[in-house]
C-alpha cells in the first residue's frame, strides 16, 4: 500500500510500505494492503511503518528504526484517511 505522512512543515514520508500502525484515539491499530476504508483521529504516539523505505537525512534525528525493524515516526496527533490502498496521515 502507499503511505504519505505529512506535517505542517513538509512531507515526512511518501512511499510504498508493507504495513502501518497508528496511535488512534480508541487504541492502536495496524493497516495492511487492501484494508477497508477508514478515517480516524490520531493521538500523541508513534506511527510504526514496516517496509523497505528510504528516510531522508534531515529526518534521521527524529525518525528511528526500532529493534522490531519498523520505522518509528513520533507524532503529537493528527488525522488518518485510508482508501484504495492509499493511507494519508496529516500529523502534528
UniProtKB/TrEMBL annotation:
Its main location: membrane. One of its GO terms (molecular function) is proton-transporting ATP synthase activity, rotational mechanism. It is a peripheral membrane protein. It is found in: Endomembrane system. Keywords: ATP synthesis, CF(1), Ion transport, Membrane, Transport. The keyword Membrane applies. Residues 1-92 form the ATP synthase F1 complex delta/epsilon subunit N-terminal domain. Gene3D superfamilies: F0F1 ATP synthase delta/epsilon subunit, N-terminal. It holds the Pfam family ATP-synt_DE_N. GO terms for cellular component: endomembrane system; proton-transporting ATP synthase complex. Produces ATP from ADP in the presence of a proton gradient across the membrane. Belongs to the ATPase epsilon chain family. This is F-type H+-transporting ATPase subunit epsilon.
Amino acid at each position: 500500500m502507499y503511505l504519505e505522512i505529512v506535517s505542517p512543515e513538509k512531507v515526512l514520508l511518501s512511499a510504498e510500505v508493507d504495513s502501518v500502525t497508528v496511535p488512534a484515539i480508541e487504541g492502536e491499530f495496524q493497516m495492511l494492503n487492501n484494508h477497508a476504508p477508514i478515517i480516524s483521529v490520531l493521538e500523541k504516539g508513534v506511527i510504526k511503518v514496516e517496509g523497505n523505505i528510504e528516510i531522508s537525512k534531515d529526518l534521521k534525528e527524529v525518525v528511528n528504526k526500532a529493534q522490531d525493524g519498523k520505522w518509528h515516526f513520533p507524532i503529537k496527533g493528527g488525522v488518518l484517511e485510508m482508501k484504495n490502498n492509499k493511507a494519508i496521515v496529516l500529523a502534528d
